[in-house]
Amino acid sequence: MSEKRLDYLTWDEYFMGVACLSAQRSKDPNTQVGACVVNRKKKIVGIGYNGFPTGCSDDELPWAREGGTLDTKYAYVCHAELNAILNSIVSDLEGCTLYVALFPCNECAKIIIQSGLKEIVYLSDKYAETDIVRASKTMLEMAGVKWRKLSGCRESVTIRLSEDCV
Ligand SMILES: Nc1ccn([C@H]2C[C@H](O)[C@@H](COP(=O)(O)O)O2)c(=O)n1
Ligand SMILES: [Zn+2]
Predict the structure, then answer these.
(1) ipTM score here?
(2) Best exposed site among 75, 79, 120, 163 by fewest CB in 10 Å?
(3) 79, 107, 137, best to mutate for ligand 1 pocket (most atoms within 8 Å of CB)
């Protein structure tokens, strides 16, 4: 048999798969988010996941969701989108697409817009009813950044890490 394989990943599945693999690095006990920035030539130029800033201990800062401002993760965590953009290997992200597991918040929307990204592809919009996401969509729409939910693709991708994986 020397026919071309037909069940290879689509571009969308590939880039979202990379974003989701990156999410597995997150220490957040409740929501792990990964993001992947892709340029017009379909090259990955940045990857990130949600976590505390470099040098800020995962074991000392809080992972709680509730409590005073200083006692929850929200005051400290860097979102996956921020990290993917900051981790970018190129300085100009004009026209790039962001693949991200969870729809961006308002703060990330600002960064996405200012970085020149043109499209967001996401899996979940579980916080759609919050003002944070409403504000995000207002700004993204005004700035001409498109978004689409990834659909019609395979539900899962298996990655094997054993010697006989090839
Ligand atoms: N688009 C987003 C939204 C959220 N995050 C991060 C921020 C937190 O670490 C976590 C959300 O936690 P939850 O409130 O669901 O317990 O996800 C992000 O990286 N990107
Ligand atoms: Zn955010």
Answers:
(1) 0.99
(2) 163
(3) 79
The pTM score is 0.97
Query: Do the annotations mark residue 20 as ligand-binding?
Result: no
Yes or no: domain 11-153 corresponds to CATH 3.40.140.10: yes
* DSSP string computed for 50-108: -BPPTTS-TTTS---SSSSGGGSGGGTPBPHHHHHHHT-SSS--TT-EEEEEE---HHH
| pLDDT 10s digits, 12-26 | 999 999 999 999 999
Domain positions in the chain: 11-153
DSSP state at residue 6 = S
In this structure, the residue with its CA closest to atom 7 of ligand 1 is 79
